[in-house]
Each structure stands twice: as structure tokens, then as C-alpha cells.
Design a protein that fits this description.
Pfam families: PilM_2. The protein contains eleven helices and 16 strands. The chain is of the alpha/beta class and about 375 residues long. The structure holds adenosine-5'-diphosphate (ADP) and magnesium ion (MG).
Length: about 375
């Protein structure tokens, strides 16, 4: 029943798909090694979830999530049965600890448990623990650094239950922020002028939360979650035009795609009134930019760092027309939308246009799919 939570840091047997269970929907990515050509996107699909089925990373309605995952699997056409799942960062506590070198695996486990009990605010029986030896301490060869991860057992079990009820095996349990980091680090490495030591700020703007992380050479030096997301724009549309939430959500997305030049004629019919851009969207973009600049200020005041070299935007809201421009101009930092599939070849069935329009929302799913190559 329990996944091998050890696999948080370990490898997994291929073929494996990444499955991101988010409040707005479930997303699947399958990657393959295409040899000289690098990575190939084999499958990539999304299935929306009814509102409330997943909230703040918690699975509130198991049946609805299972139904969506089943539809997603069918739609994607994948034959893989092993999945990598992500835990919401808020449900996992991670902590670096120092232990004496030379312990046996068994002694390590005992030590980790006893250290963990000091940091974890709930009973260890309710917790699933994992750890990974980082390596010897720089300052002393007699000590090793160990990364400890603890999650509420029930939160893990919920995700495993979704996988099993959908005929899948939860082979890798990761943390969403780790998966996003893996995907964005890969993208950043392909960006011209990407030097070692580059300070990257990643803003994942989702439905109800924005996850901010600052990364240097693949290491997270600071992170924070802000209660800001695309739901509030949808609510603004609801208020301004008297639409139901679902309708407002659909029109918001259709409008964005159309404005970005990706929309179909069918979507054009689901348009919003002419005043939308100035009266509703613009104020939201202003608040989004303010969230970004505030987070950056907070990063500078609470750490020794004094610069950010590059901003990446991801999550469903990254596609909002005008967001990248306002963030770049308010911060005066080189900014880009993170396209996790950048530099990958596409399998015949994968539509390039969809990846371009929707790519940033697949950052976590893509990072999870990358676990196949550990
Ligand atoms: N094309 C789009 N244009 C504007 N907003 C979008 C688009 N696609 C998704 N969104 C918004 O992004 C949010 C969901 O982003 P996502 O990263 O999937 O969030 P979460 O991880 O919180 O579920 C929703 O508010 C949704 O309306
Ligand atoms: Mg998400």
C-alpha cells in the first residue's frame, strides 16, 4: 500500500510518467531518451478537475480525481504504468541535519528518526520519513550532511490511492517544488549567457497560490508561498460580468489564447466584453507585478543576496497576456516564461501549438517525468 517513500531521492524503473495533481487539473507528461536528439516528449495531456476536488494540495474528492486521472490516461494513450507523483511543498518538511560519518544504514535510520522527532510538529507514527545522504561536511570529514524529508502519511496515502484506483503504481514520490526546480534548472542551462552562480527566481503562479523559489546552480536558497493566483482574476470576471465561475474561467483562458494568437474560431465566440483588458485584466496584472516585486524585496531583506539575474514565470497564469512585460518592466530583471519542453523533440502525436500555449503549466509534470532518468 505504501509507496517506497525512499524513492523520493532514489531512482525508478522506466517507463515512468509524471503526474501532477493540481487544483485546476491533472497533468501527465511522458518523456523518453531520444539518444543524440536529447529528450523526446512522448505524451502530454491535461484533464480539468471540478472545483474543490483538490484544494491547497489536498485531495478533497478522491472519486473525482480518480475519474479525471482515468480520462487523462486514456486521452494520453500512455502504456506506462509507473508514475512519479508530487507532494505539495506545504505538506512536506525538509531539513538538513549533520550526523557522524561511518554509520551503518541501520544506525543512520535510528539517528534520522531521533533527529526528526525534534523538528516535526506531529507524532512520528503519522509521518512518512525519508532521508538522503548529501555527503561529507566541508568543514569536517568526521560528519556528514543528511537531508531529511517528512510528510503526513495520510497525504501520501491519498496520492497513492489515486494512482492505484487508476491502475497505476506510484513508483516515485517527489515534492512539487523539487520537480519544478529540476525542470527549470534544465531550461535555465539552455539559456544563452547562463553562467554558473546565476541567481534565478522562479514564480509559479497557480490557481490560488504563488510559489516563489530562488535557485543557484540547482540549489534552492530561499522559498515562499504567497496566497495569490488566477482564481482571483476569475472572481473579478464573475463580479464584472455576472458569469458563473466555470464560465468565467473558460472565457478567461479562451481570451488569453486568442490574444496570444493561438485561439480557434470556436474560442473566439466565447469572448469577453471589450473593456475586459483595461478594466479587469490590467488591475490583476498590476497586483501580480506587485506580488513579484514584494517577494523580491523580501528575499533581499531576509538573505545576504543582493541581486537576481533572471526571473522565470511558470504555472497556469504565466500565459496571461501582458504578465511577462509588466514583470520585466517593474523589476528591471531579465524575465522569461519557463517552457519546460524547450529543446526537446516531439513525438508525432504531440501538438507543438498546445505545448507552446500551455507549456509553463506543465513545469511540475515535466519535472516529475524527468525522474525517469535519475
Ligand atoms: N491560458 C491561460 N490563460 C490565463 N490563465 C490561465 C490559462 N491557463 C490556466 N490559467 C490559470 O492558471 C491557474 C491554474 O494554474 P496551475 O498552475 O494549473 O495551478 P495549480 O497548480 O494551482 O492548480 C488558474 O487560475 C487558471 O485559470
Ligand atoms: Mg500546480
Amino acid at each position: 500500500m505504501m509507496p517506497d517513500w525512499k524513492t523520493l531521492f532514489g531512482g525508478a524503473a522506466p517507463p515512468l510518467v509524471g503526474l501532477d495533481i493540481s487544483s485546476s487539473g491533472v497533468r501527465l507528461v511522458e518523456l523518453a531518451d531520444a539518444g543524440k536528439e536529447g529528450l523526446r516528449v512522448e505524451r502530454c495531456a491535461v484533464e480539468p478537475l471540478p472545483r474543490g476536488a483538490v484544494a491547497d494540495g489536498n485531495i478533497e474528492n478522491l472519486d473525482q480525481v480518480v475519474d479525471a486521472v482515468r480520462r487523462l490516461l486514456k486521452k494520453s494513450g500512455t502504456r506506462a504504468r509507473h508514475v512519479a507523483l508530487g507532494m505539495p511543498p506545504a505538506a512536506v518538511i525538509t531539513k538538513k541535519i549533520v550526523l557522524p560519518a561511518g554509520l551503518s544504514e541501520e544506525q543512520l535510520e535510528v539517528q534520522v528518526e531521533s533527529e526528526a522527532s525534534q523538528y516535526i510538529p506531529f507524532a512520528l507514527d503519522d509521518v512518512s520519513l525519508d532521508f538522503d545522504v548529501i555527503g561529507p561536511m566541508a568543514s569536517s570529514q568526521d560528519d556528514i550532511e543528511v537531508m531529511l524529508a517528512a510528510a503526513r502519511r495520510e497525504k501520501i496515502e491519498d496520492r497513492v490511492a489515486v494512482a492505484e484506483a487508476s491502475g497505476l503504481k506510484a513508483s516515485v514520490m517527489d515534492i512539487e517544488s523539487y520537480a519544478a526546480r529540476a525542470a527549470v534548472t534544465r531550461v535555465a542551462a539552455q539559456t544563452p549567457g547562463a553562467d554558473a552562480g546565476q541567481v534565478i527566481a522562479l514564480f509559479q503562479i497557480g490557481a490560488s497560490a504563488t510559489h516563489v523559489s530562488v535557485l543557484i546552480d540547482g540549489v534552492t536558497v530561499w522559498e515562499r508561498e504567497q496566497p495569490f493566483g488566477g482564481n482571483s482574476l476569475t472572481q473579478d470576471i464573475v463580479r464584472a460580468y455576472g458569469l458563473a465561475f466555470e464560465e468565467a474561467e473558460a472565457r478567461k483562458k479562451a481570451w488569453s489564447l486568442q490574444a496570444a494568437g493561438q485561439g480557434s474560431t470556436q474560442q473566439a465566440a466565447a469572448d469577453l466584453p471589450a473593456g475586459y483588458a483595461a478594466d479587469v485584466l490590467q488591475p490583476f496584472l498590476e497586483s501580480a507585478a506587485l506580488e513579484v516585486t514584494r517577494a523580491i524585496q523580501f528575499f533581499f531583506t531576509s538573505t545576504p543576496y543582493t541581486k537576481i539575474d533572471r526571473i522565470f514565470l511558470a504555472g497556469g497564469c504565466a500565459m496571461l497576456p501582458g504578465l511577462l512585460d509588466i514583470v520585466a518592466s517593474r523589476t528591471r530583471i531579465a524575465s522569461a516564461v519557463a517552457s519546460p519542453f524547450h529543446g526537446m523533440v516531439l513525438a508525432p502525436g504531440v501538438r507543438e501549438q498546445q505545448l507552446r500555449a500551455d507549456g509553463p503549466a506543465y513545469l511540475v509534470a515535466c519535472g516529475l517525468a524527468l525522474r525517469r532518468f535519475d
